[in-house]
């Protein structure tokens, strides 16, 4: 008898975005007029074409594969040196941050990396997850059997929640008097768009060093940080190399959501405790995991990612980011003018707003779908503390965003 992984049965029935798709599809079937007007500001998926440098690099690399002299089969599991060097230099060293090419592991997505990292961590860690946050952290812990049951309110027994709210600006501080083994942090935050200041991140790093906590820092949206005083990498914070792993992605800066390329940084000196109490470097374990379960990102895609670091590539990705940030400003203004409390959208491509009159966020989702024919993401999908809030994604065409702003203004009170 084949037994299934019972942990999957603890999960809420659907992952957030498939549940949104289910409701949207049902609405479109029932209302052809609504379907024709539908604008999707739900999932944070890019809409604008790939930067021309990436297209040229994809073409060039494909040509190379067409010739015996330049053909390539399996690449290094950790990524080609040309990309690891470009990342280490372009994203870190050029900004005065210590990260070496050998510490970078190229992958096909941050979602995968955030889930896969549990492979190298023990089953009994006391793990903290921000609330609200990207649902992948909690769900992958459930799948890996690191939690108890999921309660009706959507909380997982066994996880420690770091509550973000309007009072703390959706940047939860390290918990006083609590000892955590692992803590996920996500800045710029998905879904709230909040960004921790240098002092707030330093407090987390100090806490982690004092409590032997491993920080899992998701920086997938770092390219959207506009304020030069805000940190874009955890490694800008003194001490972080001794307590943090960082996840980054080309999805949101280079528009690679469909191309697939990301990377994880595991500093050489970062260790965790083995059962016998000895300290073991996580770098070697992650390398072992990657070479056993992964065969690397395709050569053509890595060449495309490398192209983003050229001068032209930087200008083109900056233009993409500008486009989405200008959208975010339009959405922020529209939601504010509608009398809602608004966070995010200034250093992140997500705008986070209170539901009118505090109605439950799935109810407001349904209302926006029916009345405005706009897809948003209900805050409750990101955790209990997201109830009463919703997220609007700025990843869209300008035309659509202006139309969404108009429809928000027209919503009946
Ligand atoms: C989101 O909408 O939260 C993102 O698309 C999630 C992701 O990048 O996987």
Would you tell me the overall average pLDDT? 96
Which CATH top level class of the largest domain fits?
Answer: Alpha Beta
For the termini, the CA-CA separation is: 57 Å
Largest sheet: 7 strands, mixed
- Cα gyration radius (Å): 21 Å
Helix-strand string: HHEHHEHEHEEHEEEEEHHHEEHEEEH
**Corresponding CATH architecture of the largest domain:** 3-Layer(aba) Sandwich
Number of strands: 15
Strand order of the largest sheet: 2-8-7-6-5-3-4
Walk me through this protein's architecture.
The chain is α/β, with parallel strands linked by helices and 413 residues long. It folds into two domains: 14-49 and 313-410, Aspartate Aminotransferase, domain 1 (Alpha-Beta Complex), CATH 3.90.1150; 55-310, Aspartate Aminotransferase, domain 2, CATH 3.40.640.10. It has twelve helices and 15 strands. Strand 11 (342-344) and strand 12 (350-354) form a beta hairpin. Helix 4 packs parallel to helix 9, helix 5 crosses helix 6 (136-143) and helix 10 packs parallel to helix 12 (398-410).
Strand-helix topology:
Layout lengths: L15 H15 L1 H6 L1 E2 L11 H14 L15 H12 L11 E4 L2 H7 L10 E5 L4 H8 L15 E5 L18 E5 L11 H14 L2 E5 L25 E6 L12 E4 L5 E3 L5 E3 H12 L5 H9 L3 H27 L4 E3 L5 E5 L6 H12 L1 E2 L1 E2 L10 E5 L4 H13 L3
Parallel strand pairs: 1-13, 3-4, 3-5, 5-6, 6-7
Antiparallel strand pairs: 2-8, 7-8, 9-10, 11-12, 12-15, 14-15
Helix pairs in contact: 3-9, 4-9, 5-6, 10-12
Bound molecules: D-malate.
D-malate binds next to loops.
Summarize the structure.
The chain has helices at residues 16-30, 32-37, 52-65, 81-92, 110-116, 136-143, 198-211, 282-293, 299-307, 311-337, 361-372, 398-410, and strands at 39-40, 104-107, 127-131, 159-163, 182-186, 214-218, 244-249, 262-265, 271-273, 279-281, 342-344, 350-354, 374-375, 377-378, 389-393.
